[in-house]
Design brief:
globular, about 375 residues, Rossmann fold, 15 helices, two-stranded antiparallel sheet, single chain, alpha/beta
């Protein structure tokens, strides 16, 4: 992005050449009696000219400074990649990485998508669908089953087979609770929506696993270990949504554990984060300034460690965009309430934050120290 912006500026001002006397040398044109705007510039000297040009460029200052934080090199999908995408809820995977997944499949790679929850706790959307307040926990359970089927269809649109789609079935709206207050299996969390205190969905990765943080962390670690991925895509831990932030921390803690046990070398992994819920994202470049200062759970914890995150663009083709739009369309239960939100993610790029091994190892520890939570 920066390279493109500077190129435009360079081309614009290369049309004008400044003489050693401080004038602008304009090409002669005998057919024009009044040189107009360029003629006015030609009469300017020194500080007057500099001040005028600065007044033209100044509105670009914020955009340029924002672009400086994006890496010039675009993210590139190569042949045969093995990728895991972690999504807190069905639809997050398509919003943030639908184009990336389409490219991986097109390049002969393999994608596994892990849905941490079934999205069964979205009361407002369920109320719109029912036309009334949900009457019982069974309404939320049926809604979770519906969103599971939509997710399967969405992944089909991206060429991902059902055997590469994993549903963990943990509580929507409760992932941060598992991290903060319900880490132990002895004190499982109970969903206020489904009333489940363990995974109750048929076809889940580990049915009847208690809603405990240690169980979720262990399941994520097991999936990573079994998959031998080249790339791991996870929610950025600075995302404003508690389920997104917590999911990101759970994945990082699983990676830290596997590395500590010498079962995984972080140097061989591309670890990429994505934002969905963040101020001005992705509609304004101002989000880059905000995220550089942000920490975990909208606090300052981890902000220093995460400030050096490299942000990369993945250019999307027309085919990527069409496939992504079809995938989002498959999440039919979300259209009435989130249709406009979906549209802002249908752009010609996706943006990912690249974490280095030091960040992966440090963030879970910073969280545990700051919030006084176990992480092993």
């Amino acid at each position: 992005m920066l390279a493109r912006l500077l190129l435009v500026i360079a081309i614009t001002f290369s049309c004008l050449t400044v003489s050693t006397a401080g004038h602008l040398d304009l090409p002669a044109d005998e057919n024009k009696e009044d040189p107009g705007f360029l003629g006015d510039l030609a009469e300017m000297r020194g500080e007057e000219l500099a001040s005028y040009l600065f007044s033209l460029i100044q509105p670009l200052a914020n955009t340029i400074s924002t672009c400086l934080w994006l890496e010039d090199d675009a993210l590139q999908v190569t042949e045969g990649l093995r990728v895991i995408v972690f999504a807190p809820h069905p639809d997050d995977e398509s919003l943030a990485a639908g184009g990336l997944m389409n490219q991986v499949v097109a390049q002969g790679g393999a994608v596994r998508v892990v849905f941490v929850t079934n999205g069964d706790g979205y009361r407002e959307a369920l109320q719109q669908q029912l036309g009334d307040e949900p009457g019982s926990s069974q309404d939320f359970i049926e809604y979770g089953k519906q969103r599971r089927e939509e997710a399967l269809q969405a992944m089909c649109e991206l060429g991902i087979p059902p055997e590469d789609i994993i549903f963990l079935g943990f509580p929507d709206g409760g992932i941060d609770d598992l991290l903060k207050d319900h880490w132990s299996r002895l004190t499982p969390f109970t969903s206020p929506h489904t009333r489940f205190s363990s995974v109750g969905y048929t076809g889940a990765f580990s049915r009847w696993a208690a809603y405990a943080g240690v169980n979720l962390k262990d399941e994520i670690a097991r999936i990573i270990d079994e998959s031998c991925p080249d790339w791991i895509i996870l929610p950025d831990p600075r995302d404003y949504h508690p389920d997104h932030c917590a999911t990101g921390i759970f994945v990082l803690e699983a990676l830290r554990q596997l590395n500590q046990q010498r079962e995984l070398a972080l140097d061989n992994l591309e670890i990429l984060t994505y934002l969905v819920h963040f101020k001005d994202y992705p509609t304004s470049p101002d989000w880059l300034q905000e995220v550089r200062k942000a920490g975990l759970f909208m606090s300052t914890t981890g902000s220093g460690t995460l400030a050096s995150t490299q942000w990369l663009e993945l250019p999307l083709t027309d085919d990527d965009l069409e496939s992504k739009e079809r995938a989002l369309s498959a999440h039919q239960s979300q259209h009435q309430i989130l249709g406009g939100f979906f549209k802002i993610f249908l752009t010609d790029q996706e943006i990912f934050g690249r974490l280095d091994p030091a960040q992966v190892l440090t963030i879970p520890q910073e969280y545990a120290l700051s919030f006084k939570q176990p992480n092993s």
